[in-house]
Design goal:
Layout lengths: L1 E3 L1 H7 L2 H16 L3 E2 L4 E4 L6 E9 L4 E9 L11 E9 L5 E6 H20 L6 E5 L3 H13 L4 E5 L3 H15 L3 E3 L3 H5 L4 E4 L18 E4 L12 H6 L1 E4 L2 H7 L1 H9 L7 E4 H6 L12 E4 L4 H18 L3 E2 L11
Parallel strand pairs: 1-7, 8-9, 8-11, 9-10, 11-12, 12-15, 13-14, 13-15
Antiparallel strand pairs: 1-16, 2-4, 3-4, 4-5, 5-6, 6-7
Helix pairs in contact: 1-3, 1-11, 2-3, 2-11, 3-4, 3-11
């Protein structure tokens, strides 16, 4: 069994590789070549954090596995990531455990990769003006991912903490080699932007529908429980909505469930899953002025696809630590 640390996963899973792996996984979902239960959530008694268990089977590569991850929003501003855990990757023939991988790195990269897949499928080809709401690890990953699929020329970032926005802008300007500017308000960040990524830990809306320019594409990533949302009802009502997995979205996505509960939209407002757009089973953007919205929750087959690609690369290049754990029958002494 190969043990892969956070740094080793990051080296073995370049964003471009992960985008293609996630694309193939979402196509497999559309073909029903997966087994994908809705994840199990175990809340701490005081609701300050949770443990998520995400099992699945991915026919592409015949991968079986589970991600076990804690989500602790209170970690923002501390040395610890809000998402921590492991991915257990098995092969489905003999059931051998192939790898234990750091889930913080897998989650960071595959989440942004899924947004990139949706952006490539739904955003207008000339999209170049990017707004990012949030400045955490997903903000940096999404900047990488958006630049991988669109020729981004302008980037504005906003945070509820202005110093975080300024620090992010300075750091990413140097890292990316393009100008990233800090916007004083979320509204100013998204003004006339044709690509918007919301990657905050907000429980109340940070993006108002009235601010979104015609023709924009939105990736809504941060809110992943029914009581939290980053988008107001008008943003959802104005948009043509796509999700990664419809059963999960209708169980967990506060960005959608709250407008549905208000009666502003119903479940039929979800056009379909992004995998269906990739395979041609679901229609995508219809005209240049339409607003498209990808509501991302993150699903186990994305983790398996990313973990499978990282494992294959690491094994081929001699990365990781080999550990003997179970599986092979050993002669008794």
């Amino acid at each position: 069994m190969l043990l892969l640390s956070q740094d080793e996963v990051m080296r073995a899973l370049p964003m471009a590789d992960c985008i293609e792996a996630v694309d193939q996984a979402l196509r497999a979902l559309a073909r029903e070549d997966v087994v994908l239960p809705v994840r199990t959530i175990v809340w701490l008694p005081d609701r300050r954090g949770l443990l998520g268990i995400m099992p699945g089977f991915l026919g592409v590569g015949s991968l079986l596995g589970v991600k076990a991850i804690t989500v602790m929003p209170g970690n923002h501003g501390t040395p610890f990531d809000s998402h921590q855990g492991v991915v257990l990757l098995f092969e489905a023939e003999q059931g051998r455990l192939l790898s234990i991988l750091d889930a913080t790195a897998i989650t960071t990269i595959r989440t942004a990769a899924a947004s990139a897949v949706a952006t490539r499928a739904l955003a207008r080809p000339e999209t170049a003006d990017l707004a990012i709401l949030g400045t955490g690890v997903q903000a940096a990953a999404h900047l990488d991912a958006m630049r991988a699929v669109r020729a981004v020329r302008r980037v504005r970032v906003w945070s509820r903490n202005p110093s975080n926005a300024r620090a992010f802008a300075a750091r990413e300007s140097a890292r990316q080699g393009i100008e990233v500017t800090a916007a004083p308000t979320a509204r100013e960040a998204v003004l006339d932007a044709n690509l918007i990524c919301t990657v905050t830990s907000a429980s109340e809306p940070v993006l108002n529908g009235a601010w979104i320019a015609p023709g924009a594409h939105v990736n809504a990533v941060g809110a992943c429980v029914p009581r939290c949302r980053e988008l107001d009802t008008e943003a959802v009502r104005r948009a043509r909505v796509y999700v990664d997995h419809q059963p999960a979205a209708l169980a967990e996505a506060g960005d959608l469930l709250i407008p549905i509960a208000e009666g502003a939209v119903d479940a039929a407002h979800i056009v379909g899953e992004i995998g269906g757009v990739l395979t041609g089973a679901v229609p995508g953007r219809r005209d240049p002025k339409e607003i498209t919205l990808f509501k991302s929750l993150g699903i186990a087959i994305e983790d398996l696809a990313a973990a499978g690609r990282a494992y294959a690369t690491a094994a081929a290049s001699g990365q990781g630590t080999s550990v003997l754990i179970g599986g092979e029958r050993r002669a008794s002494a």
